[in-house]
Design goal:
heterodimer; A: 280 residues; alpha/beta; TIM Barrel; 8-stranded parallel β-barrel; 12 helices; 12 strands; 25% strand; globular; B: 214 residues; Rossmann fold; 4-stranded mixed sheet; 6 helices; 26% helix
């Protein structure tokens, strides 16, 4: 299997943002600019998350999806605020190839079944935001790790597979944005329990973290944000003419120090040296 | 833009936007349609699809599209099947029970097994990039080099009876299967050329040339 590298773009309004533990969002620029750069430098897919959609109960990325689909010819997954079959239809019609659902799947697991029968399993991705609780187990959360669902992650993973999900995007909220490495125990637990692909997300700060998530965790794909975004900010001219939000963070030229700035090409060269197959 | 009419068959089971967009880029005038008349009068057909085999056949039947598609192919007009659109050309599939397909080609559609020959668990569906092992020269794959990467999303694959139709094979978890076929003016691929970057777009460009030279 060729391991996929999937840049994740968290989007708030018209802006690309990045936080830590899915909170404390800073504006990094325009998502289209980053997306085009990642497409041209060898991204295997792209993931757009409307990070405030759950708050407003709707996904507002239609314009950004349409613009992206016109110049980017790799698969695009879109998540955030998708509640119904009609929502899925409208996101796919705008140009997305897959949709990622979390809150709606928890509230109504049957949506996974219905949607996978209509659009095909491979179009329906379930996002699981996991937080380790005091009993040592991981539990699924919604709304960027704010709302507890009471669902134990391994049980929930098996359930979403059974209902027809084609893929799982597994986020460790504890590790997300920290650059301290993936939650390998969580990834291992889920990949051993299901036979659908698992996309590992949350915690990558160094190249070896990515190798670990594949070799020790058994992930089929890796979703990255900080490492790639900060590399792009440091080495390219980021458009700071924003429609809204503050460009102070971009212009400050700082980034989060736990995270190495690495581009996709370097990541893939490193993985191939580590005997992990990827498309190059 | 070519004057030839290309119909992208909409049977409400797939994401047609990216297919239509790929057509536009290579200069094909392609419209999305569920109308039997449009399909009968089209110069070329594209049958995409990401849903389930049984539902696909049921929908094609409800929209009364099966006869116009078969007629189109019998008249030797150009046809491109993508993903499920490849699988539907065969006689039958075992997806969620047994289902009858369009039967243009002999053979069946089967699911990847849970384990490979070495008893290792296989991740299903196959989602991601994989390579083409070219089996013969064909205008559809003109300019595509051996071992080129394409983007795949599927749990089922075809077992064609006639090896002469095979254009390319792909290996997933030690299972080798057919990933592209052609015969006369019928072409079909298991992968998604519209999602496979600039190399994938070449396939739409080749299809466009095939139609225009016919």
């Amino acid at each position: 299997m060729y391991i996929r590298i999937i840049p994740r773009l968290d989007i708030k309004g018209p802006n690309l943002v990045k936080g830590i533990h899915l909170e404390g969002l800073r504006v990094l620029g325009k998502p289209e600019q980053y997306a085009k750069h990642y497409y041209e430098s060898g991204a295997d897919e792209l993931l757009y998350m409307d990070v405030v959609a759950s708050l407003y109960e709707r996904n507002s990325l239609h314009d950004i999806i349409e613009k992206t689909a016109k110049e980017i010819f790799i698969p695009l997954t879109v998540g955030g605020g998708i509640r119904s079959i009609d929502d899925i239809k409208s996101i796919l019609r705008a140009g997305a190839d897959k949709v990622s659902i979390n809150t709606a799947a928890v509230r109504n697991p049957n949506l996974i079944k219905e949607a996978s029968q209509i659009f095909g399993s491979s179009t329906i991705v379930v996002a699981i935001e996991a937080i380790r609780q005091s009993d040592g187990n991981f539990y699924a959360f919604t709304d960027n790790g704010r709302e507890i669902t009471g669902l134990e992650v391994v049980d929930w993973s098996k359930k979403v597979e059974e209902l027809g999900a084609g893929e799982i995007i597994l986020t460790s909220v504890d590790k997300e944005g920290t650059g301290k490495g993936f939650e390998l125990e969580l990834i291992r637990k889920v990949t051993s329990a299901v036979s659908i692909p698992v996309v590992a997300h949350g915690g990558a700060g160094k190249l070896e973290h990515i190798r670990e998530a594949v070799k020790e965790g058994g992930a089929s794909a890796i979703s990255l944000a900080s490492m790639l975004h900060y590399d792009f900010m440091a080495n390219s001219k980021v458009d700071t003419t924003l429609e809204e939000g503050s460009s102070a963070f971009i212009q400050g030229g700082t980034s989060y120090t736990n995270v190495d700035k690495v581009n996709i090409q370097k990541i893939k060269e490193y993985l191939i040296e580590s005997n992990i197959q990827c498309r190059i | 833009m070519s004057n030839l009419k290309v119909a992208i068959i909409d049977y409400q089971l797939s994401n047609l936007f990216s297919v239509q967009h790929a057509c536009q880029i290579v200069g094909l005038n392609a419209s999305i349609t569920s109308s039997p008349n449009d399909i009968s009068s089209a110069d070329a057909l594209i049958l995409p699809g990401v849903g389930a085999f049984g539902d696909a056949m049921k929908n094609l039947q409800q929209f009364r599209l099966i006869d116009p598609i078969i007629e189109h192919i019998n008249k030797k007009k150009s046809f491109l099947g993508v993903c499920l659109g490849l699988q539907l050309l065969f006689e039958k599939s075992e997806e969620f029970g047994n289902h009858k397909g369009l039967g243009i080609f002999q053979g069946s559609v089967v699911k990847f097994p849970n384990k490979n020959s070495k008893n290792e668990m296989i991740i299903i569906p196959q989602i991601g990039w994989n390579t083409l092992k070219l089996q013969k020269k064909d205008p559809l794959l003109s300019g595509i080099k051996d071992e080129e990467f394409m983007y795949f999303v599927h749990s089922y694959y075809i077992l064609p009876k006639d090896p002469k139709i095979i254009l390319a094979k792909t290996v997933y978890e030690k299972i080798e299967y057919t990933s592209a076929i052609s015969q006369n003016n019928v072409f079909a691929v298991q992968f998604h050329p519209e999602k496979s970057g600039t190399e994938g777009l070449k396939i739409y460009r080749n299809f466009s040339e095939i139609i225009n030279n016919l």
